[in-house]
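## tool: complex_structure
## caller: assistant
## args:
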Amino acid sequence: MFSTTWAQECRPAGRCVFWNPCALPQSNPATTTSSNDTIGSQPTRPGEDHMAETVVLQSLSGSRARAVRHTIADVQARSYVDAIATGNPFESTEAFMERFEVYSGMSGFSMVLAIIDGEAVGQAFGWPLGADTTWWTGLVLDAGQPATEEFTVEDGTKTYALSELMVDKKRTGYGIAGVLYRGLLADRTEQRMTWLVNPANQNAYAIYRHWGARRVGTLQPVWQGAPQFHVLIADPQA
Ligand SMILES: CC(C)(COP(=O)(O)OP(=O)(O)OC[C@H]1O[C@@H](n2cnc3c(N)ncnc32)[C@H](O)[C@@H]1OP(=O)(O)O)[C@@H](O)C(=O)NCCC(=O)NCCS
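## result:
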């Protein structure tokens, strides 16, 4: 696939980080942002040689992300199609946006939006866990892990929490999640990253394992209707 090679070979040389306003949505609030780095690459389905389309990654701070919240909601609705169809209120776009309003205000919040031909097609966001984080509330560590107090102590430099990663269902299977994942984590300096996966989400779970994630425990967030997630840990630079 294209993304890792592209990011690792191009970014240190500074050649492939570019500003491409032509690729941003023409009638989308995202166009109102003005000075974000963007990253381009060629999405390719396994077995295909190439696609003509270029993915542009737009970096957003929390405030900029909230300024384009309608786009954020729309991408969630087009990505979590199957989960939304279950009728579980936790999976609804409305509930997602309630969480987004909280998450986007977290200190250090960072986000990337993937754009193809002016259309937002995927997004990922997260933030570093501070000393006062409630992220680990409800954590049950697996046997063999460190003591909970040791594992969960945070200072803002230890753990980056990947809160959400999603791709428009029509665009899945092209490597866009990989571009988002690597784009979001490219400049992270934390020692580890963590995120939650619903064990019923076998597709996402397989992808996360492919990226080197390992399960360390379980956690059920306090949000109403939240499932019991598996807690994953990985090296941000792996
Ligand atoms: C899960 C989701 C983000 C995947 O998006 P995607 O664009 O189809 O994923 P990609 O095509 O980028 O695949 C990601 C990587 O996993 C690999 N992969 C894909 N399916 C795989 C599988 N079954 N087993 C192992 N690896 C797999 C790909 O080759 C790719 O590898 P690379 O990054 O090294 O190139 C997307 O299906 C989605 O948004 N689902 C709904 C929302 C959701 O469930 N989000 C996750 C919540 S925990």
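## assistant note: Strands lie at 17-18, 38-41, 55-60, 110-116, 119-128, 140-141, 159-167, 192-197, 214-219, 229-234. The pocket of coenzyme A is lined by residues 1, 3, 79-80, 165-167, 172-178, 197, 201, 203-204, 206-207, 210 (CB under 6 Å). Handing back to user.
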